[in-house]
């Protein structure tokens, strides 16, 4: 009697998306299955987002809404209570009973969910980068790691992280010193381990970007007793918005009929918020998020471009909300005069001795000069660099399998492997979560 060969699924990327997919595949497999995860980090499930060691970097939604188990939405919260993982973290607990633990705690939670699968040898962790991917005429995949190891798989899943941030063009000519003995200091990625330890409390700091990464950076600086001025700039000077003070349920209808332009969508959102002043705006934005895939489908290419160009910055600050503990830190820093947020962009940067001389143009057109000891870039992922961010993606781009997608918000498969099951112009979003559907949403 012959035994059925296990189907092998190879997942490139072992952050939350890759880990969650592996967990769901192996939870109740309908066929013999084994999963390989290629992830250089020692801990599966952490990725960029949940490997942050700074305890001031917190999840942005309450623990009661974070779970790897879609059928058990309170799984993470119950795990927190059972393990006491955040019991001593007083800053994580809010007056309303919600818990916002450090991001690394959620990463450890995901790792514990995968541990039994690793012990049972249903899941194998390969701590290496994938350097090359090829598809055989038989339909199977060949994966070669950076160390020269070769693996075969029946199914390939790309679950890699966002590309690393890219410095603004005015700063690319400077080196990126991380030594505390070297000034001025330029930090291109505040998520790197110990990236901010080179900044002294008395250093004047310029942060380029005013989103969630800026807020986390400020929280880290405040925890390090920073006492010198911090200036954060972005073209619109928008901060990430906070959560509603009271629990909300998604409400509203933005599909009857679907908007056919970015302007119509914006007008409809504004109108429904104005007509319901007693309902927090978060409830309507949550419904927009739910209906977003259908909204996107009904927009033409021109309107999609308008939406991304004009509305995306506002969507990002309302959709990706700041945790209350971090928001309190930022608000306190502003009230004390430690932090200023300004709508401006960098015109020039010159190194003068141990300082940077920075020329800014404000939103209203005024020219300002700033002298700073350190510059931190928190501009977010450089999606335009996605094809060069991973060795195997670079390899596939050279083979003309992929190209950058629509407005650099994803990848497009060019149909080179159409006979092997690929489809031409297949859109693959970059910003999807484990079970998301579209970029931006």
Index terms:
seven-stranded mixed sheet, 17 strands, 27% helix, alpha/beta, disordered C terminus, four-stranded parallel sheet
Q: List the helices and strands in order.
A: EHEHHEEEEEEEHEHHHHEEEEHEEE
Beta-strand level of the residues, as a percent range?
15-25%
Distance between the termini: 50 Å
Q: Which class best fits the helix and strand makeup?
A: alpha/beta
* Oligomer kind: single chain
Instruction: Name the poorly predicted regions.
Output: 416-441
Number of helical segments?
Answer: 9
Description:
With 441 residues, the protein is α/β, with parallel strands linked by helices. It contains 9 helices and 17 strands. The protein has helices at residues 16-27, 75-83, 103-119, 212-223, 262-275, 281-297, 301-319, 324-335, 391-398, and strands at residues 7-12, 33-38, 123-126, 130-135, 141-145, 150-153, 155-158, 185-187, 205-208, 230-234, 339-352, 355-362, 367-372, 374-377, 402-404, 410-413, 426-429. The strands form 4 sheets. The protein has a 7-stranded mixed sheet. A 4-stranded parallel sheet has the order 3-2-1-7. The protein has a 3-stranded antiparallel sheet with strand order 4-5-6. Strand 11 (339-352) and strand 12 (355-362) form a beta hairpin. The radius of gyration is 23 Å and the shape is globular. Mean pLDDT is 86; it is low at 416-441.
């Amino acid at each position: 009697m012959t035994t059925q060969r296990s189907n092998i699924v190879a997942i490139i990327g072992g952050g939350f998306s890759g880990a969650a997919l592996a967990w769901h595949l192996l939870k109740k497999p309908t066929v013999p299955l084994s999963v390989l995860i290629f992830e250089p980090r020692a801990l599966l499930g952490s990725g960029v987002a949940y490997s942050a060691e700074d305890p001031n970097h917190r999840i942005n939604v309450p623990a009661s809404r974070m779970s790897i188990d879609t059928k058990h939405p309170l799984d993470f919260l119950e795990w927190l209570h059972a393990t006491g993982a955040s019991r001593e973290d007083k800053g994580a607990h809010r007056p309303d009973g919600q818990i916002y633990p450090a991001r690394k705690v959620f990463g450890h939670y995901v790792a514990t969910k995968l541990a039994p699968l690793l012990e049972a040898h249903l899941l194998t962790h390969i701590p290496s980068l994938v350097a090359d991917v090829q598809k055989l005429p038989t339909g199977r995949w060949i994966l070669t790691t950076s160390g020269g190891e070769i693996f075969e798989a029946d199914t390939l899943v790309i679950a890699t992280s966002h590309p690393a941030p890219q410095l603004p063009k005015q700063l690319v000519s400077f080196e990126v010193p991380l030594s505390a003995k070297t000034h001025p200091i330029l930090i291109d990625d505040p998520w790197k381990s110990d990236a901010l330890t080179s900044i002294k409390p008395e250093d004047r700091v310029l942060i380029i970007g005013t989103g969630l990464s800026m807020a986390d950076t400020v929280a880290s600086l405040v925890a390090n007793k920073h006492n010198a001025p911090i200036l954060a700039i972005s073209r619109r000077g928008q901060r990430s918005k906070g959560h509603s003070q009271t629990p909300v349920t998604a409400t509203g209808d933005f599909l009857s009929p679907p908007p056919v332009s970015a302007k119509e969508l914006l007008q409809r959102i504004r109108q429904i918020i104005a007509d319901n002043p007693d309902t927090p705006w978060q409830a309507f934005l949550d419904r927009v998020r739910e209906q977003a895939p259908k909204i996107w489908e009904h927009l033409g290419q021109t309107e999609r471009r308008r939406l991304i160009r004009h509305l995306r910055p506002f969507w990002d600050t309302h959709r990706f909300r700041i945790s209350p503990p971090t928001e309190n830190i930022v608000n306190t820093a502003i009230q004390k005069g430690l932090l200023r947020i300004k709508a401006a962009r960098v015109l020039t940067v010159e190194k003068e001795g141990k300082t940077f001389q920075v020329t800014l143009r404000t939103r209203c057109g005024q020219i300002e000069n700033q002298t700073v000891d350190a510059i931190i870039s928190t501009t977010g992922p450089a999606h335009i660099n996605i094809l060069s961010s991973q060795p195997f993606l670079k390899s596939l781009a050279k083979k003309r399998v992929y190209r950058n997608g629509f407005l650099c918000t994803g990848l497009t498969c060019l149909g080179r492997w159409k006979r092997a099951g690929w489809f031409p112009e297949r859109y693959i979003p970059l910003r999807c979560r484990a079970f998301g559907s579209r970029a931006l949403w």
